[in-house]
Amino acid sequence: MTGLTHKPSRTNDWLDRGPSAREEIPRAAWKRLFACTGAAALLQLDGTLITVALPSVAHSLRVSSASTSIVLSAYFGAYALTLFPGGALVDRLGARRLALCGLGVFALGAAAGALATSMGVLVATRIIQGAGAGLVSPAALAGAVSGFPPERRGSALGIWGASAGVSTLLGPVLGGLLTVTLGWRADWWALVPLALVSAWAIFDHLPRIGHGDAARGGPAVLDSVVLAATLIAAITFAVMIGSFYLAQQYLQRIAGYTALEAASVLVLVASLVSAAAPLAGRLADRRGERLPALLGFLAAGGGLAVLGIPAVSLQDPATIPVLIPVGLGLGMLFVPTSRAALNATPLASHGRTAAMLSIGRLLGAAAGAGLAGVALAGGPSASGVHTALLVACALCLFAGMPAATRLGGQRATAGMALAGARPDPASGLREPPPARSGRMTGG
Questions:
Q1: What CATH number belongs to 27-421?
Q2: Is the pTM of the predicted complex or chain greater than 0.70?
Q3: How far apart, in whole angstroms, are the C-alpha atoms of residue 437 and residue 418?
Q4: For residue 313, how many other CB atoms are within 10 A of its CB?
Q5: Domain boundaries in the chain?
Q6: Nearest partner of 195 among 74, 105, 121, 94, judged by Cα
């Protein structure tokens, strides 16, 4: 009996040791993470890069500014509708195959969009792009964490979240530069080579099966933690995309900024998002997901509340310090949602879990862009933007914070780790010793 009680003790030791004592993550797992992160960053880049070009699109295609919000909503809507089928295919066929297929469709849609001569055609091409993105997104997230055990996923996802911030930072700057110098069609053309580079990285670094038990499928993913994480993801992206859309329209059409000047105003927010994500990852690994999520919503909601005050100028440099808590708060929200949901489900279901998270993000982004378009239906105005920012604040404080309390308050528990801590053998990580029975709690 001594031998029987010893094995579960080793399992508990593997779960309880600090990060510095655990097995070092092999280089192959990091390469896989960076390849998948690049593909996901491309999808994030698309949203902010295209947003900057929309006023020029409206002028070129002779449509109203408010109607251009459908260019974003069509992309995000198609993206969301494709996600869950894409996640199921990831669990069955592997992350590599789905990511490559999705990037091909995405590049095709971007090239067609660059040639569009009417708003209807442009919207149709955005639907094609969104369908491709819906295949890439769950494949990229499932593949990215497949080489990491549960208690190390916060640090890995911190890099993932930082990439979203970097792409959010680069998107407005690149979009503004391309729009000013080459016209709005250059924003669409730029996505084609970027998609091809991402496909090469996926092809080179991802194994043919994205994670260990993909071929067998897996259990359902709709538990309370995954649902709470999905809601938080939706709120985060509704606030972020909606606020960015409002800011671009207001600064270009009311404040008289060029596309590049308006984009530069958002650089601070995007850089803070990028800086906060790794910090949130380390905090989540040490204290669980609940604390960084609560801090994120509190900071973002507080900053938006100040910006929503009618007396606060939205084009005065004095408002820049108010953007700091908004950027940091949004950056704190990327990691807790992904870490909580992935640690609550086994690797065999990570494709569908990633799809659920992305569905939340994309539906939130589509809603944020659509509501921002409604707020501008009568023409951009300071009062309309202030009101919309107060609505975003209310979402953070009265919907986001209650949802954040549903996330885990501690490091990955033994149950979570045993459910999801089987890294892909191709990563080089060894699996923890399995517990033999519920009676063998060891001592």
A1: 1.20.1250.20
A2: yes
A3: 12
A4: 12
A5: 27-421
A6: 105
Encoded amino acid at 363, one letter: L
**Is 430 a residue whose pLDDT tops 80?**
no
Residue type at 268?
Answer: L
pLDDT tens-digit readout, 276-311: 989 999 999 888 999 999 999 999 999 999 988 988
295: tokens are 């801090």
Cα–chain-centroid distance for residue 236? 9
Per-residue model confidence (pLDDT) at position 12: 35
The single-letter code of the amino acid at 423 is: P
What is 32-87 written as a DSSP string? HHHHHHHHHHHHHHHHHHHHHHHHHHHHHHT--TGGGHHHHHHHHHHHHHHHHHHH
Place of tokens 């409002």: 246
Nearest Cα to Cα of residue 233 among 175, 297, 177, 318: 297
- Specify the 3-state DSSP secondary structure of 48: helix
> What span, in angstroms and rounded, lies between the C-alpha atoms of 196 and 107?
7
Q: Which two tokens stand for residue 214?
A: 């993909």
Position 208, amino acid: R
pLDDT in tens, 30-54: 889 999 999 999 988 887 788 888 8
- Whether 441 shows a pLDDT value over 60: the answer reads no
Joined together, the tokens standing for residue 421 give: 């801590």
Determine the pLDDT at residue 250.
Answer: 80
Nearest Cα residue to 120 out of 48, 57, 186, 178: 57
8 A C-beta contact, residue 349 and residue 59:
no
Q: In terms of residues, how long is the chain?
A: 443
48: closest CA among 365, 375, 371?
365
CB contact at 8 A, 333 and 232: yes
5: pLDDT confidence band, cut at 50, 70 and 90? very low
CA–CA dist 25, 31 (Å, integer): 11
User: Whole-angstrom Cα distance, residue 4 to residue 30?
Assistant: 36
- DSSP conformation class of 255: S
